[in-house]
Amino acid sequence: MTTPTTPAELYRHGLRLLLQKDIPAWMDLWDDNGVLEFPFAPHGWPERLEGKTAVGDYMRHYPDHIDLHDFPDVKIHQTTAAETIVVEMRGVGRLVETDTPYDMTYIAVVTVEEGLITSYRDYWNPLAVQQPGAGFAGADR
Questions:
Q1: Cα four-point dihedral sign 1, 89, 82, 24
Q2: What are phi and psi of 126, to 5 degrees?
Q3: Are 27 and 56 in contact (CB under 8 A)?
Q4: Strands 75-78, 66-70: pairing kind
Q5: Which of 42-46, 84-88, 107-111 bottoms out in mean pLDDT, i.e. has the lowest?
Q6: Stated pTM of the model
Q7: CB 136 within 8 A of CB 96
Q8: What is the per-residue burial (b if ≥16 Cβ within 10 Å, else e) of 89-114?
Q9: Using one digit for the tens of pLDDT, what is the confidence trace for 54-80?
């Protein structure tokens, strides 16, 4: 694969890596000082992860808990800042522990500088993590 040249291309490449469950390769898309924020994080869940190591620690076990199958309906909007995009999408798959369907709608605001993610604000529905098997990053982690 050629190196993604725009934030939208980098983001789409990252989605493919998540579907392949290649978290190390997904982490290679991050700047060492990148920040991942969850503005709607429920009590006991992280609201802000600072640095590539913290993001990697958070994401390392994601495929063990959520088996993603597809990201239908991905819409990427360019902002007036060339390095920042807004993404609307759905992630569908199954919760591994319970073998029940997973269907989450997301909005993300992502900034890419020099080909790496420096900021990712993930707006998702915190009610969904109340399902059994979804709590991989919650207070019990």
A1: negative
A2: -65, -15
A3: yes
A4: unpaired
A5: 42-46
A6: 0.88
A7: no
A8: bebebbbbeeeeebebeeebbbbbee
A9: 999 999 998 998 999 999 999 999 999
Q: Which amino acid is at 87?
A: V
Residue carrying structure tokens 């040249």: 5
For residue 14, the model assigns a pLDDT of 97
Single-letter amino acid, residue 36:
L
Token readout for 137 is 């990053």
Residue identified by tokens 């998540």 is 18
Q: Please give the single-letter amino acid code of residue 111.
A: T
* Tokens (6 digits) for 98: 């319970």
Closest CA to 61 of 133, 7, 109: 133
**Three-class SS state of 17:** helix
Size (the chain), residues: 141
Average pLDDT over every residue of 39-51? 92
